[in-house]
Amino acid sequence: MDPMKINKVIGPRPVNEPEIHPTAVVDPSARLGHNVKVGPHSVIGPDVVMGPDCVVGTSVLIEGKTTIGSNNRFFHGAAIGCEPQDKKFGGETTFLEIGDNNDFREYVTVHLATEEGAQTRVGDNNLVMAYVHIAHNCHVHDNCVIANAVNLAGHVEVGSNATIGGLTPVHQFVRIGAFSFIGGASRLSQDVPPFVKVAGSPVEVRGINSIGLKRNGFTDEDLQILKKAYRILYRSGLNVTQAVERIAADCKLTRHTETLMAFIRRSDRGIVR
After folding, report:
1. CATH number of the domain at 213-265, out of 3.50.50.60, 3.40.30.10, 1.20.1180.10, 1.10.155.10?
2. For the chain, what are the domain ranges?
3. DSSP-derived 3-state class of residue 235
4. Which of 125, 130, 98, 127 is nearest to 111 (CA)?
5. Among 41, 96, 121, 154, which is least packed, fewest CB within 10 Å?
6. Are 168 and 187 in contact (CB under 8 A)?
């Protein structure tokens, strides 16, 4: 574990020492920042580093080589930093890194990565609702809402500001683009481009995520450009490669259209059609 990273997470010597319930078990080697609260019957392992102002509820398990930022909340029954559910895992040294200001609701599970030195990562300002599973080597970026009982298989990437409706299973290695919206009980086996909304099982594309984009400060011009790109991608009859070429030629090139095209070009599993 990088000492510089650990010191950055926990900050200077605690001013307000952690409050640990008498029934909680916190390994003496764990490093907890100031004003951390650990509730009844929770267990924190020896390799855990936790930043200031975190709240660990009742019967929470946090173990493994897990580094946690500041102001995170872990609700009843969450299991964080456990070994991955992967037959290939043979006890390698792997990591979980969690940023700041996240809520992990009841019975959420977030696992360590597989492969020596690899990481599972959760960014900042995410709401992870009850019974969500975030598997090994996933990367959840920032400002995401992941609703109840979503299951992310290994190596899934969720872009910033994405919303995933409840009861949605996501196949391993799928990428979910920034600002996208996934309807509840969808089934994802291919990549979801940024800025779009999808729903169903099998999943279907339902247009640009206009409401979500407006809430995040996208202008009317941004929306019009993205709608034109969407029509080329999904309504022109072109294949994906041809559509990306047409978008580059016919749409105003903004950071959003560049993001869309770059995402599609990087897709290994193919995009939802």
Report:
1. 1.20.1180.10
2. 3-207, 213-265
3. helix
4. 98
5. 41
6. yes
Q: Which residue has the tokens 């993205």?
A: 226
Q: How far apart are CA 97 and CA 250, in angstroms?
A: 41
State which amino acid sits at residue 13: R
Mean confidence (pLDDT) of the chain = 96
The end-to-end CA distance of the chain, in Å, is 42
Residue 101 to residue 55: CA distance in whole angstroms: 11
Burial class for 144, CB neighbours closer than 10 Å (0-12, 13-18, 19+): buried
The CA distance from 128 to 223, in Å, is 28
CATH 2.160.10.10 fits 3-207, yes or no: yes
d(CA 84, CA 139): 14
Q: Residues 114, 135: contact at Cβ < 8 Å?
A: no
* Res. 2: pLDDT tops 80: no
Residue 205 CA to residue 197 CA, distance in Å, equals 6
Nearest Cα residue to 131 out of 168, 171, 94: 168
Triad 111, 262, 231: Cα angle to 5°? 110
